[in-house]
Design goal:
Pfam families: Trp_Tyr_perm. By secondary structure, the protein is an all-alpha fold. It has 19 helices and no strands. Helix 3 crosses helix 13.
Length: about 450
């Protein structure tokens, strides 16, 4: 019997060794790790960062310093929490929706889909406004032409973008992917080009926004949490990222490998974005940043209009337009897929089989009318982020994973960590900031 037991143990050891040989050594850095670190890096830096300096700098030096301290931990721990929630799921290949369905049931999945759609679509609407304002500002300030009627300009832009996707979505997605790294390079180029324009007006603890709103420093810091959460959000990418690591390194090594890759990615992201934020704000004054907020422009468009630099004047608005266009198209594709699924499933529950052409027509009509109206109405972009986009992203990125870790048995090993408390506090404060911004 002892001999049989020894053989059994030997066989199990050999079998385990064979299994381990199937996966690369997770403690080492591999080529695919570099690929994923760069992919996350490219996804994490979107057009949202073009609005971060406006809120970050309008609170003065203290606001800038605290954003610099908070940006990395907020980005790292929130996306780590989402990765943890997904990687233990058997439905991770279906994305976050499949994970929610597995953990909490169909009703929770439906509610999540609605919240997820609203979070994406508010960003589509926001970028509709940003595109119209960027184009209008470029026509007036750089081309020195008369401002076109806003209703016509906004309609032409919305129809043009959607037409591009409808006639070649695959090509558009490839072009968008190709534009990621040139956009990041252009941010670095602009940041370096702005160095001669730096001044000392921001190196003060005085704050235009706190003085005008009477909120005080803590209130200002609180109210900029939504833009921090929004600017660094790339939650849609996390599912495919986690699944690839699980397939490559095995489920036991997934958590550590994800943490390793995310850490490298977020250090690069933090360095590029904060260099851009500091360089932009040091080139202006707190009053300039308040004017940019009132004019509803991205920081690049405002810099192009205010600075006497030929390079900035021409390059900045073009970079802004391309970046916002890329983000609009990316979020539109995501919103389209969610809307399509909801319409088809809604029809099936009522015993109706809605055709693909009908679904497409319904979605396009809805998108064109809503984007056109919002772009024409010109609501505050930062107001949309504060009141809607930031809090909804925080609910998905911060509060949902923490709730899952608390309630789902398979995630029990992640309970009781200080980072969880940090993520919960950031999530709650961001949601509360949105409620406060409405009053």
């Amino acid at each position: 019997m002892n001999g049989n037991t020894a053989k059994k143990i030997e066989f199990q050891a050999e079998n385990t060794a064979v299994k381990n040989e199937e996966y690369p050594d997770p403690t080492k850095w591999h080529k695919q790790d570099t690929t994923w670190a760069l992919s996350l890096f490219g996804t994490a830096i979107g057009a949202g960062v073009l609005f971060l300096p406006i809120n970050a700098g309008s609170g003065g030096l203290l606001s800038l310093l605290l954003i610099t301290l908070l940006a990395y931990p907020v980005m790292y721990y929130s996306h780590r929490a989402l990765a943890k929630m997904i990687y233990a799921s058997n439905s991770a290949e279906e994305g976050i929706t499949g994970t929610i369905r597995e953990y909490f049931g169909n009703k929770a999945s439906i509610i999540f889909n609605i919240v997820y759609f609203v979070s994406i679509y508010t960003i589509v609407l926001m970028y509709s406004v940003a595109l119209t304002n960027t184009a209008s500002s470029f026509i007036v300030h750089q081309l020195h032409m008369q401002e076109p009627p806003r209703a016509i300009l906004s309609l032409v832009l919305v129809l043009g973008l959607i037409a591009i996707l409808n006639f070649g979505q695959d090509i558009t997605v490839k072009i968008m992917s190709m534009l990621v790294y040139p956009f990041i390079a252009s941010l670095l180029f602009i940041s370096i080009s702005l160095i001669p324009q730096w001044n000392t007006s921001m190196l003060s603890f005085s704050s235009v926004s706190t003085a005008s709103a009477g909120t005080g420093y803590l209130g200002t810091i609180w109210m900029i949490l939504p833009i921090i959460v929004f600017s660094f959000n790339h939650s849609p990418m996390i599912s495919s990222f986690v699944m690839k690591q699980r397939a490559t390194y095995g489920i036991e090594a997934t958590d550590a490998k994800c943490a390793q890759i995310q850490k490298v990615c977020y250090i690069m992201t933090f360095a590029v974005v904060m260099f851009f934020v500091w360089s932009s704000t040091l080139s202006l004054t707190p009053n300039d940043l308040m004017m940019a907020k009132e004019q509803n422009l991205s920081i690049l468009s405002y810099l192009a209009n205010e600075l006497n630099s030929p390079v900035i004047t021409i390059a900045a608005p073009i970079i802004a337009f391309v970046a916002i266009t890329k983000s609009f198209l990316g979020h539109y594709i995501g919103a389209y897929e969610v809307m399509r699924d909801m319409i088809i499933k809604s029809g099936k529950t009522r015993g109706k089989d809605i055709g693909e052409k009908t679904v497409k027509t319904m979605i396009l009509t809805f998108v064109v009318l809503t984007c056109w109206y919002v772009a024409y109405a010109n609501p505050s972009i930062l107001g949309i982020i504060d009141a809607l986009s930031g809090p909804l992203v925080a609910a998905i990125l911060c509060l949902l994973p923490m709730y899952a870790i608390r309630k789902v048995p398979v995630l029990a090993k992640y309970r009781g960590k200080m980072s969880n408390v940090f993520v919960i506090i950031i999530g709650i404060l961001t949601v509360l900031a949105s409620i406060k911004s409405l009053f």
